[in-house]
Amino acid sequence: MTDPETTSQDTIEQPTLEQLREALDNEDPAAIRELLANIHASEVADLLESLPNQDRQRVWWLIDPDSAGDVLAHAQESVRVSLLELMQPQEVVEATRSLDTDDAADILQDLPEALIESVLLAMDEQNRQRLASVMSYPEDTAGGLMDLDVIPIRADVTLDVVNRFLRRRSEIPDNTDSLVVVDRDNRFLGVLPLTAMFLNDSERTVGECMNTSAEPLPATLPAAEVAKKFEQRDFVSAPVVDEENHLLGRITIDDVVDVIQEEAEQTFRRMAGIEENDLFAPIWSSTRRRAVWLGINIITAFVAAAVIGRFEATIQQLVALAVLMPIVASMGGVAGNQTLTIMVRGLALGQIGKSNIQPLLRKELIISFLNGLLWALVVGVIAYLWFGNHLVSLVIGAAMVITLASGALAGALIPLLLKRIGVDPAIAGGVLLTTVTDVVGFLSFLGLAAIVLALV
Amino acid sequence: MTDPETTSQDTIEQPTLEQLREALDNEDPAAIRELLANIHASEVADLLESLPNQDRQRVWWLIDPDSAGDVLAHAQESVRVSLLELMQPQEVVEATRSLDTDDAADILQDLPEALIESVLLAMDEQNRQRLASVMSYPEDTAGGLMDLDVIPIRADVTLDVVNRFLRRRSEIPDNTDSLVVVDRDNRFLGVLPLTAMFLNDSERTVGECMNTSAEPLPATLPAAEVAKKFEQRDFVSAPVVDEENHLLGRITIDDVVDVIQEEAEQTFRRMAGIEENDLFAPIWSSTRRRAVWLGINIITAFVAAAVIGRFEATIQQLVALAVLMPIVASMGGVAGNQTLTIMVRGLALGQIGKSNIQPLLRKELIISFLNGLLWALVVGVIAYLWFGNHLVSLVIGAAMVITLASGALAGALIPLLLKRIGVDPAIAGGVLLTTVTDVVGFLSFLGLAAIVLALV
């Protein structure tokens, strides 16, 4: 949260990372193996993500094959892809064997199309069918997130029968907080919380004790919606059904946590034009993606330059204008970006709609007007002290108020317009905003100056 | 996730929001009451957050007192504070009665100091003690997150005894996936998963079946660390202990989900200088907070202006320089900001340390150099076509390469330096970066131009 935590967060990881670094430098595979054996698969994945590409490969060869699947499941997609490239189909089969179906499906989906086939063929029939079922839904839907480790029971049996049925199993899947009640045709009827098994008399039937108000998730529900349901209802697990209410599987909270984190980060990453895993991505792919962003920005920059170009004569007459003009554009950009950031996030969270857009717009305009006045005053005074020209002071002050208000208006309206035409506001919003604030900033400042100079 | 989801996310909420709007406009309290009764408390909280202040109050009066506590627990802090201001101490007591201890403590902590006392006094002894225990830990630690709804059992009893003990209870707290095993002095020994109750013979003892490898969380563990543990280990709940290993309570996944979401958003919000709930915060507090950010930026802007001021004579000689100079600074800013964003996030996630900082720095420099060359070429050609002056083209190209490389270097080093001196890199990083890219951008471009003009 605040700094102390961030710091302590590091102190947990850094020693392991340093030890690993040392073992790599000493070319000491035994030390690396021991280190890896003592930490959780998710931490191994974190470590691999933090390593440069060639070290990552060296460490990967030393991972216990039994935990390779778990490590892959916890790794970021780009890292996973780079590790999968090092593996034979049979190794992938071995690694995914012990995983939940949803995790196995995620890994398989990162393989080249041709390899997916050969991996599926190397599996036994049951696993292949289970995987095919999950993989038939897009990765970012309830169907793609579900695993198949659900325990279905019938409504007409007694709790005692369920108890004996459970005892015959050798294990109960992780995160099982309830059993799912289905009819003869595998249609969803309700859920029986495990705790109900303790609270009720064992002669009562499942049908009497089950919770019928729990609504199952449709397999086609987008992942973002799934996450919202889990957050709002504090689910630990939820059953997934097809269009005809047939039980398909279940989603557990651990998969949803990943979605929630991804959701929250996504907007902001897009606003900076960087990829999910840019920090450890190969140089070439980072360069390419970021170049696109710079290329878009250069259009903005030239539009702004063109505006300045219209006023070459004015600048020639009073060079102080060239000195001060970036201040106006910069302040407008910062103010507009504040509005843009909260609008983009508010839209992503579904907090903004027809009913509240008017008061929000009004609020943003008032804020920017108040801040515009305040900083116009400050900048005006400093400009006067610097250049001793009260006309320049008045002009820059007026330009600041205009530019900050335009920045707020653009920051609020651009995301709404982009959304309406189906473009993600996080991606193009910032560039469009800067275009507006630069153009208005330079135009209002140099334009007002030209008028004033002509009058004097 | 991608656009279609964001859109569908809205279609769920918007109808409710529109209906509410309509009912408010029609001054129809019955319709509002009915609407509120049909949605989950967390959705009521979402609705309240989306309303302007006076509408929020009107709706709040119509909420069923029985669900008021739940709504408060789900609301954002600033909204909660504004609602608490409308309540009498006795109403707060009523509202918090049915809540988990951690949720009740969160609400109480938002009350003015004097009111906390009177609310605590109005409670019965047991609740008061439970609340005081949770409130003795900071809100962002394991102790502050925990609730006290843990079911402790002894190691020497049989599963059958546990079974009968559970049956005597009228309910088992939500998210109970395991019972906590303690010794005579309430010291933590291990956990007994509920599923173990089904899989083992009922004559076996708790001690034989419990999981002793589960580590409890210390009450002082920062919330960010707690979230990390839950994410890595896929916990549903985890016991919390004091320094002497005494069992204090438990943390459940639903509280952790809030922490995870908060964590992920925090960095980026700070980078834009906006508050947690700026979208619906009162105008005055938004204005103040954002003014600070603009005030910091104005220093940056004047430093950049001062650099330009040194070259007034050069600009006078060739006004094209004033037209083109914002391009250099803007491109450097965008490139630097890409590096800054991923470094700040990488640091917050603990992914960056001594062992990998060198390859990361090298990578960022290479990327910025490649992009610098590419865009130097593009800008150089366009500048030549525009002004027909090959010297200006050469100068702007060279300045672009220098500025983009400095931007990457500054984007990578500034967060590291800020962190070392204990300042949150998310807060001050962007402003410092812009100062560097503006100064280097204007200095390299105008400086090179001055030298070239002097030589010609």
Automatic annotation (TrEMBL), chains A, B:
<feature type="domain" description="CBS">
    <location>
        <begin position="210"/>
        <end position="267"/>
    </location>
</feature>
<dbReference type="InterPro" id="IPR046342">
    <property type="entry name" value="CBS_dom_sf"/>
</dbReference>
<keyword id="KW-0813">Transport</keyword>
<dbReference type="InterPro" id="IPR038076">
    <property type="entry name" value="MgtE_N_sf"/>
</dbReference>
<keyword id="KW-0479">Metal-binding</keyword>
<feature type="transmembrane region" description="Helical">
    <location>
        <begin position="317"/>
        <end position="344"/>
    </location>
</feature>
<comment type="function">
    <text>Acts as a magnesium transporter.</text>
</comment>
<protein>
    <recommendedName>
        <fullName>Magnesium transporter MgtE</fullName>
    </recommendedName>
</protein>
<dbReference type="Pfam" id="PF01769">
    <property type="entry name" value="MgtE"/>
</dbReference>
<dbReference type="InterPro" id="IPR006667">
    <property type="entry name" value="SLC41_membr_dom"/>
</dbReference>
<dbReference type="GO" id="GO:0015095">
    <property type="term" value="F:magnesium ion transmembrane transporter activity"/>
</dbReference>
<comment type="similarity">
    <text>Belongs to the SLC41A transporter family.</text>
</comment>
<keyword id="KW-1133">Transmembrane helix</keyword>
<dbReference type="InterPro" id="IPR036739">
    <property type="entry name" value="SLC41_membr_dom_sf"/>
</dbReference>
<dbReference type="Pfam" id="PF03448">
    <property type="entry name" value="MgtE_N"/>
</dbReference>
<dbReference type="InterPro" id="IPR000644">
    <property type="entry name" value="CBS_dom"/>
</dbReference>
<dbReference type="InterPro" id="IPR006668">
    <property type="entry name" value="Mg_transptr_MgtE_intracell_dom"/>
</dbReference>
<comment type="subunit">
    <text>Homodimer.</text>
</comment>
<keyword id="KW-0812">Transmembrane</keyword>
<feature type="transmembrane region" description="Helical">
    <location>
        <begin position="430"/>
        <end position="455"/>
    </location>
</feature>
<keyword id="KW-1003">Cell membrane</keyword>
<dbReference type="InterPro" id="IPR006669">
    <property type="entry name" value="MgtE_transporter"/>
</dbReference>
<feature type="transmembrane region" description="Helical">
    <location>
        <begin position="291"/>
        <end position="311"/>
    </location>
</feature>
<keyword id="KW-0460">Magnesium</keyword>
<dbReference type="GO" id="GO:0046872">
    <property type="term" value="F:metal ion binding"/>
</dbReference>
<feature type="transmembrane region" description="Helical">
    <location>
        <begin position="365"/>
        <end position="387"/>
    </location>
</feature>
<keyword id="KW-0129">CBS domain</keyword>
<keyword id="KW-0472">Membrane</keyword>
<feature type="transmembrane region" description="Helical">
    <location>
        <begin position="393"/>
        <end position="418"/>
    </location>
</feature>
<dbReference type="GO" id="GO:0005886">
    <property type="term" value="C:plasma membrane"/>
</dbReference>
<dbReference type="Pfam" id="PF00571">
    <property type="entry name" value="CBS"/>
</dbReference>
